[in-house]
Amino acid sequence: MVMILMVLLSLAGLSLIRVAEGKLIQAVRYKSQESAAAAAEAAYEQAVFWMSQQVDMLEALQHTPAATTITFPQSHADYTITFATFIGARPIFRIQANGYCGIYQKTLSVYLVQAVSGWDMGMCRIISGPNTTDEVNFVTGEIISMPLHINDMQDNPDYTDIHISGSPQFLEHVSLGESRYDPRGRDKYASILPLFQAGISFNQPASLVVDPATIQQKVRRFRDSTNPTYCYSPQAIQALPKDNNGRTGFYSSCVTDLPAVQLKFYVDPSGTGYVRVYNNCTVAGYTRQGFGSNSWDYKLNTADGNPRYIKYPIYGCHYTPASYTDIRIDNPSDAIYVSQDFKGVRSDPGAQIYVDGNVVIGCSSEDASSLGTINTVKGNITIVASGNIWIANELKVAGNRDADGMPSTDNPNVLGLISQGVIKVVDPGMTRNDLLYDTDQFDATRISGYSPIGNQTGSGVSNRVLPGTMTVEAAMTIAQIPVPEKP
Fold it and tell me: Phi, psi (5° rounding) for residue 128?
């Protein structure tokens, strides 16, 4: 009897040992699988971070292999990013992230599109002098209905990098490069968090949308893919008269002749979308003289960085040659439309115009009688300029609109503007204010080729103004200055 009991106890003990051993093996297996999964997720996050640092993913994949290996104490991982296809004109990318732990492997395969953000700012400040910037405040009454990102200012002392006066409304998500807390652990944002209705994120990757070298690559790709017929290199063929005292010409000290192309968007009475192109225009560019903080018209000094910012000439008025070209922009079968081609896969076509120089956009109010619906874009078109883009009238897209008046999501009409200089809404009435010349002694509107722009008000062709409500409906990328102006 004793022997039988001992055998039974021995068998029970062996069973318990085997159960414990099985549980241990199962625990090790689960832990290894979880480690592999965690490594794959970490690799995926690293891949997404790498993508967030690219302004143009197609350009990035052409020059940099998007693959890497990550090592952890008990596991390792790798990822690859490849181009998958186009949906319309938007490229789709595939991330494959693999995590490894022992004999176990976890693979994540994700298709995604690079987000199109609303408003990426280098910093929430405006240049005020050769080496200084001032805060730009979002104020009561302003409604920011687009996603917003602001890079880390890395200021010391550490204050909020977004500047607010009163109670503006932020309807979309806001992301910031800086931490929510200062080095002492104080919550810098506690008092303004309720303003961000769609949430706010901190410690986000820096946007490279204002990086000149990156935009240079983007501009070069657009230039190379544009039909040569629609590539322009304007010359300032009309020499404007100059006079030191501004009595017989423009002030010689502050006005320079700048080459430009003028674009007039319109929809003719039959409903067809066009752009009228004047090549070889001459712009009277005005640069305020003197030193220090006497102008807001500064740009990044990309030559030697000393000083950090330099003044640039703004639009004063311009002169056009007699000839022009009307180009239809709403027919994807026309030669102005081109497709992106990446590894044998082609996107939906879009119209493109490349200008190696400056661009003036806008009609005069008088153009309505001959052109139709002016300052209206019907078509899908991108304008790329190596210089500045000056907008001197409102600019809207044709097509369906939502109840709030904004273009609807199914509206096929799109205008893209990319500039290596600045994109600026300008004053069409600079010829009245004595900055360009002595208005009592000289009249620039009487020079042959003078082209009025904006809306006429009162008597005299030089009395030009912007609309009471200035609207520009366009996707804009600006590379030269670190602070985009408020739209």
Answer: -120, -5
Distance of CA 128 to the CA centre of its chain: 22
Query: Rounded CA gap, 321 and 309, in Å?
Result: 34
Other CB atoms within 10 Å distance of the CB of residue 104: 18
pLDDT tens, position by position, 115-138? 666 788 878 888 888 888 889 899
Contact 346, 378 (CB under 8 A): no
**Cα separation, 372 vs 271, whole angstroms:** 9
Report residue 487's pLDDT band, with 50, 70 and 90 as the boundaries.
very low
Structure tokens at 484: 């985009």
DSSP 208: -
pLDDT bucket at 345, cuts 50 / 70 / 90: confident
Residue pair 426/314 in contact by the 8 Å Cβ criterion: yes
- Nearest Cα neighbor of 426 from 450, 451, 453 is 453
Alpha-carbon distance of 330 to 368, in angstroms, equals 19
**Does 67 have pLDDT greater than 80?**
no
Q: Kindly report the three-state secondary structure assignment for every residue of 65-78.
A: CCEEEEECCCCEEE
Contact between 107 and 90 (Cβ < 8 Å)? no
CB atoms within 10 A of CB 315: 24
β-strand 273-286 against 137-139: which pairing, if any? unpaired
Long-range contacts of 49-54 (CB under 8 A, 24+ apart): 49/205, 50/81, 51/81, 51/93, 51/114, 52/205, 53/205, 53/206, 53/208, 54/114, 54/208, 54/214
Q: What pLDDT shows up at residue 275?
A: 98
Q: Please, are residues 299 and 310 in contact by the beta-carbon 8 Å criterion?
A: yes
- Model pTM score: 0.80
